[in-house]
User: What shape does this take?
Amino acid sequence: MTSDSSSSPSSSDTEFADPNPSTDPGTNSERVQSQLESMNLSEPSEVSDGSHTDYGGGDDDDDAPAEVALSNANEGGFTNGRVVREDLAETSGEEGREASLRAEHPVEMEAGEEPPSPTSSGYDGERGSSGGATSTYKADDASEDEIREANGDGDTASQHEAAWLPGKRHVHEDDASISWRKRKKHFFILSNSGKPIYSRYGDEHKLAGFSATLQAIISFVENGGDRVNLVKAGKHQVVFLVKGPIYLVCISCTDETYDYLRGQLDLLYGQMILILTKSIDRCFEKNAKFDMSPLLGGTDAVFSSLVHSFSWNPATFLHAYTCLPIQYALRQAAGTILQEVCASGVLFSLLMCRHKVISLAGAQKASLHPDDLLLLSNFVMSSESFRTSESFSPICLPRYNPQAFLHAYVHFFDDDTYVMLLTTRSEAFYHLKDCRIRIEAVLLKSNILSMVQRSIAEGGMRVEDLPIDRRLRQKASSTNNQGQDTGGPDRLRDISVGTGGPFGLWHFIYRSIYLDQYISSEFSLPVTSHRQQKSLYRAYQKLYASMHDKGLGPHKTQYRRDENYTLLCWVTPDFELYAAFDPLADKAMAIKMCNQVCQRVKDLENEVFLQGASPFSW
Amino acid sequence: MVMASMSSGSESFRLCVFDLRRGQNEGQELDKILFFYPPDLTFSTQLSVIGLSEGLITFTRLFSPEAACEVIEAERHSHVFYEAESDIWMVMVVEKNKEIEAIWRVDALRRMLKEVHSLFVMFHGSIRALLEKEQTGGLIRSHLYPFITDYLNDLFVGKKLQLPSFRETLKERGTVQMLTLARDAALEVQSLVGVLDSCVGIVRCHSVILFHDLLVSTTLSPDDTVDLFTFSVMRLTTNAQSSGMSSWSYLRKGSTLSQITSRSTSAQLLGSTDPLPSGNGNNAARVIRPLQHEKWSKGKVGFLVTDIWGKDATPTIWLQQTQERVYLLTYQYKSLTLVLLVPTPAIVNGELDISFVKHQVIENASAKILKVEEKLSKGWGGENAYHVSGYRYLLVDNDMEISRASPPGKVATLAKESLLALNQLREEVDSEKSRTKVERDMEISIRAKNNAWVIARITRGKELYMALEKASETLLDATDSVQRFSNRYCSGSFSMD
Assistant: This one.
């Protein structure tokens, strides 16, 4: 029942004629808009004259000649030729100039600041060229990156592990590609006029039509005096976040909670603010059709690395940071010199190892939010240019002050360990360089850098190493839960073999509320592959979301068991514990093990946590 | 009972039915709309609700062709979707408002849509069939308007529409509540069913027997049983008959419905202010309103009579499983309600044959009915028969579409925090279930802020939800409590240790 679309003068006629929208891959996104638009009538009489309500930029598509839609439909795809051309034109137009100006003078967007020091690498375009060096974590986004199996759960589709590479993939795709539609998790950033700013997969320019559709949905609901947060369809969730003139959308079938997906959009927005500051809002005030994508040119690796971290870094949902385990005295020594540096007019000084903190200090009353720390370390770790030389770059800490740029001096001592010094003064490069030299001297003198390497090699806490209470041991042989028939000294080792820690403990995360820090055990058997680790993190995320329901406040305890895990969560005013056990673990023993873990963490807190850092209050 | 209530007519509640296959051309969009509540909203508002729904159905199919839009969660409203028949969608828009306790589970709301559609099909056949019968849509509209409006009237208390809120979290719409029978009573019932089966001779009659608002026996498929049970509890049982009596079934809310009934009859049915697009109003044919209130009464010989289907006309309904139309005869003795379903082919001479069947029932079954009633009354524990001290629970068997729950009066003693926590837990379980589709085993125990334990256990198509408010209990105590409950009342189904 296809109508004669070729002779139809209006594209919406063409689309409405198709009674079976799901089988038509071509014109759907246009259809949605037409449906939204044609329905938004002020009076019934308007139906007949076919007038459309203006949605700002989103209605660009309306005037698209039917032939365009038709020819694209024939290819099995839809792109709005006109929008693409416009975008290209604008890139070389006024906004394009704005962008190139900004590339040369990165401080242009901040108020009343002087240009950076001559040695600044700033936004010199190197940022996009980050290579494999950041991918020290062996990883794969395989299940997300892969196309889902047509009729099944992609999680079982592939067991292989590929090294995760930063940067954008599948750039050739757009919303007409079946492969693109089957990606498990999309992220989009667009402007409120519907211009694409970022898409995790596919070329932003080719996604202009799709972007306009997202914008139309958001503004349609907004025009009704409401704000759309979530759309659910089968396994898919479409999550919306509106931040002034910036719209963020996630389309996912990854079985993550709405709260966490929204949190991810929030972090994505934060990452963008970290690069550009919130003063981009002003550009949209001046020009609603402002094209901001050139400003983010070359930052694909930063965003892809952040998106990747959503599936391996607990900091993204715990909103806490983690420290590299190191001897208390060494951490103190590092802390002392960082504190001294702060006293000389530096706002924040941080000594980091990859995404973990070795020590940090802040100027009086200045506190750093864990989310800012996450975004900052992601930015530095994913940008290759920071590794090649000392750098001085404008950055914004969205939680600290989203309106203004700070200046970050970054220097890598080796592949993993680096110092970040943040200041409000754009001319402070040489001062910060001096500070770094002082810090480096202390690090060398106290041998901290080699101790850091040793700590990396040794890893963090392991569930296998947990000391087991003698009473538990006796209880274990009496409950005989693990199917062992004899007790004796070898028994405990037997329990551990193949099942991680004692009594089926596989993994735990302990979060100290006051310190805003967490410690996560190393992954043990049987949670060894990245896929299993990711699946465990997803289970933790759900547990976290369930415990921290917004309306009800935190619950106290939760026990959850399914075919994959036994999970226990314990929330107190001081700490939160998340522990994963074998699904067949004995409940009573699991509870006792949780107590043991908490005790063990308290015993080691001087080594695993940064103590006495300036209290983080916000 | 306290429920989320919202005033009608305002923005707070909207319900629409539309057909995606209709009104595809510009200027004909109104053609899509088959039903809209409240009916006095402007067409542009109606079209904007449907336009958003349709837009998102199309949009979500891009990524999820197999399951289109199920819910839109906005800051102020939830839009709940249900594809009742292929391309025929029902969408309910409800306003969120914490102050009036408008907190619910989306699945509970969707079950309302499913319920009203199932009932509609039982009486009138499918929406698509009516659309095909009369292409302008006038016929289906003239049926849907009174039907859904009558259904919604049940939810009105005064001028407020009351939707299933978190306070009803220990209830499951679309399931049957059974009476537990002692062995001797079960044998009597069995024997009675045998007699009813054969009261028209060789053609087998289906029957459904209720005692108070609980199901005693059925010979129908689970789906048909749910529909007929739902209708019986709404209109036929003794409790439904005695209007004004406080109900303990979620199927009957308030007892005040006069105001809306009169409004719906005058404004929407008689066509004086027909809100439908012109050309569609087909008011010539008399529309039957099976859910009309206070239309059933007990006749002389114990059979319920009504003039809904016309004077002296016997109602017919449509059975899903056998795809046949059957006459619906309802016999009532004290608290016992017998619904007898006589296949239409067995009735050749209309009401004459019906009278004969009635006569047969009285002749052959009277003694057994008396006996069954006596046995059931003797064993009847009253409203709180299924209360288990110390527990507030809901037990659902999805395969059989059966549920049992703590009596509402007892559930009402739970703290609001406990109910909210349980409601949230159920929402989580709902989303797990809808994600995986396959049955899985799951156990979740949460100690809420107020120290109450809220517990969910899912195993082999059975679900158990529970709230325990003894503050001193540890996780192990709570587990033991569930274990004891499972052993005693669920034949150990939920024993996971």
